[in-house]
Structure formats: C-alpha cells, structure tokens
Amino acid sequence: MIWLVVLLSCFGLICANEPLSYKVNNGRVIGGSDAKPNTWKWQISLQLDSYNEGSFSHICGGSIVDSFYIMTAAHCIISSDVSQYRVVAGEYSLFEYEGSEQFTSVEKIIIHPDWNGDLANGNDIALLKLVNPIYDNGYVEITNLPYPDQTLPHGFTCYITGWGLMDYNGSVPDKLQVAPLDAVEHAVCSQPEWWGSIALKTMVCAGGDGVISGCQGDSGGPLNCLTDGVWRVHGVVSYGPAGMCNQKFKPTVFTRVSSFLHWIYSVMDQAL
User: Fold this and answer.
1) Can you name the CATH fold of 41-142+261-270?
2) 38: nearest Cα among 97, 1, 90
3) Where is the Peptidase S1 domain (predicted)?
4) The predicted structure's pLDDT at residue 242
5) What string of DSSP letters covers 7-44?
6) Of these residues, 63, 66, 124, 238, which one is catalytic?
7) Is 124 a residue of the active site?
8) Known catalytic membership, residue 186
9) Which residue in the list 190, 219, 238, 259 is annotated as catalytic?
10) Tens digits of residue pLDDT in 228-251
11) Judging by beta carbons within 10 Å of its beta carbon (0-12, 13-18, 19+), is residue 138 exposed, middle or buried?
C-alpha cells in the first residue's frame, strides 16, 4: 500500500504543492457548500511566498490552538524558511479583503519529531509559532481540543472546512467551504478494501461515500466535531486517494489530535 501514498503525494489532497494558477468558479468543495461567514473562527489559511516577492498564495489550512500557535499538517511545511509563510486568521474569501483578516508572520516551525515524510507512518502534525499573537476582533477564536485519546463513534458526523480543490480540474473556491463527513472507525478503515494497514489508530478516517471529501488545499485544516456540547477539532487533514479525491471506500484521513495532545501542550508550555 506504500506505493499508493507515493502517488498521493503528487495527486491527492495530502500534497502541499507550490501555489498554482487556480481558477475560481461557482462550484462547491467536493460535496460541500459555502460556509456561513464568521462561524468556523479557528480556521486559518496558511500561505506561502514561494519566491520571496511578497506575493502569498494559499497552500494549506490550519487551526488556532493558542493566540501564538497554529496547528497544521507536517507535510504542509515545504520550506524551512519561516519568512516565506504567513498565517491569515479571520479569513473568508481568499480573493477579497473584508476587514476581518489578521495577517501574521511565522517565527518558528515545530514539526513532530517522529514525522519522517512517510504518510503511512503517521505523525503528520506541526505547530507554527507566530511573531505576533492573534487577537480577538470578533472573527477569530481559539479552538477547543478533544480529550486525551478520545475517539469518535462510527458514523458520527463531523465537518471539514477549507479552501481545497472543488474538482479534479483544479478549481478552488473563493469562499471558505464546509462539508459533512461521517467518521469511519479504525476497524473498518483498516480493512483491505478501505485504507488497509496505512490507516493507523493515531488517525481519524471520515467520509468514503464517493460523494463528499476533502481535497488538495484542505491539508492541515480541521475536522470539526460537536462532542460533549462543544465544537472541537478532532483531526488535521493528512491524506486522501490519488486522482479523484472523492472515491468510495477511500475516506479522507486526518491526524488524530487526541493522540498528540501531550506533544502539543509540551511545545506550547516550553515557550512560557
């Protein structure tokens, strides 16, 4: 199954490529719709200035876990030069300045120590320490995280949000998209006809109905779940199928946040 992951890195949602000349149309994220403005306040756009020309393009999503820290996927880090990145909080339309945005530079990139570039090995998670803190302007919010080792029941409906591709032709939305995804328990997702051995217990599978999915550009973004009466980010978008993103029995796979809480808190505590 490892060869499939290699293909995914080029064609699936898991790849954070150099910014492309995307086109905008009136379609929707795969199976999703325009999010209601000012709802998913912890969602950010991670943007890259590939040539240090002051021109930033969206490459990945992420979540605000602290006023100084953003959680995203390790595979989204395609340059070690912090000056090439910026975080945009309070974003809704990528192609329109709305006055709600906060543009913040990155001071430090902290990648999980066990990440080795192999998606099948897991640990696809990173934290970005910001130069300046994100402040409450009414359009941003620090996310709630799950409890340690908390898992989602099979079929539990969560929501993926992001500005990822809407189709195989490379179209992206202007506005933040949201789509429901049902959790697929590990016992199912690890079956051979699903993701097999590359679906680890430190991952969350969601979707796989062949209709709704995340796609490239959603990487690093949140899996939002209403658990215990509170919206929590249970997953970080990690990988999906090669080719068409919405394939039956190939759900979007997320890094399970509840498996990495000790590392997340230890990184943030070191800065105190």
Assistant:
1) Thrombin, subunit H (2.40.10)
2) 90
3) 29-269
4) 80
5) HHHHHSTT--PSP---EE-S--STT-EEPPTTS-TTEE
6) 124
7) yes
8) no
9) 219
10) 999 999 999 999 998 889 999 999
11) exposed
